[in-house]
């Protein structure tokens, strides 16, 4: 039996960030069922930081995370932000929707097509532009977080699916692959599997639904230089595309509810993506490269779950990170660790209330509200 202070289940970006936050304060075991970290959602994302993305709660957490990305860079932990490429929301001709939102500037159709030459100004009415949006280097985050974990004596335990858990003497005793581990505190960061893992600890599932999102790499039009050009989303969020190492990453923005699994794209979804791209831009797709899919997991209010389980001792949730898990992970991991260590939360009490797991089952009270930023 390996005795630890903190067990973290799931080495996606959320679990990695939590491991790095907790490692200076005790012995951490980061447990992963796959052979490598970021094998599932965290290794399959568009990896872009967009301040206007998601609801107001997600936007507030993203803003906080932006400060922590900057801090990580200043401290030499990792440098994850690429130079801004911006994101553009465009309104196809005749669409009744606008796309106006905080952090976005208005663009005429001509300005939009100048910024992203794949677009045809004749096919869009106007656009909204968030110039500060930038790619996130997920590998740099992963490497930086693992370095902190190991520097403090923590370990990544791969190929170790958690199969059972038992609470005795104030500690969780966990069977993970061939390993037996124990700790008083467990962070459940199991992504699409978060409800299943929670059940192993006797917690009520919170209704997290994994949704499949597909993507494919295509060649851009032959005469267009796309380097450093913005990501483009149509206003109804039915298609988006983004330059990716000389090609375009294209997605139909699908959200198909599925069971947690190692998912692959359906041919039909990729065909829909190509059709929508061709209609939006007027370009024909000449060559299709590899496709992939990942799971974006949501609860109905589309806010994250970050905080203690309302009933089960020592169990903390960190998940339901939808389409914003990479850009919010630093802030959510900071909050989780501060709650576990009983330190000032560095987050507003209303925000903590909006993301605490207890809200899902009508238990919205915040533990130790006096430690939140506005107490
Ligand atoms: C196509 C696509 C585009 C996206 N674009 C963006 C974007 O631009 N910006 C952004 O911020 N987000 C984006 N996202 C969302 C982002 O990828 C996710 O929110 C984020 O990766 C979730 O991280 P996670 O750590 O919670 O989950 P995961 O990365 O899935 O990690 C969970 C881990 O838990 C492990 N696990 C599960 N069960 C067990 C068990 N029993 N024992 C041990 N280990 C277990 C899994 O193997 C997995 O490695 C996108 C997602 C997709 C699919």
UniProtKB/TrEMBL annotation:
SUPFAM superfamilies reported in the protein's UniProt record: FAD/NAD(P)-binding domain (SSF51905)
Keywords of this entry: Oxidoreductase
GO MF, any single term: oxidoreductase activity
Organism annotation: Stakelama tenebrarum
Name used for this protein in its record: FAD-binding oxidoreductase
Domain of life of the organism encoding this protein: Bacteria
GO CC list: cytoplasm
Boundaries of every FAD dependent oxidoreductase domain copy: 5-337
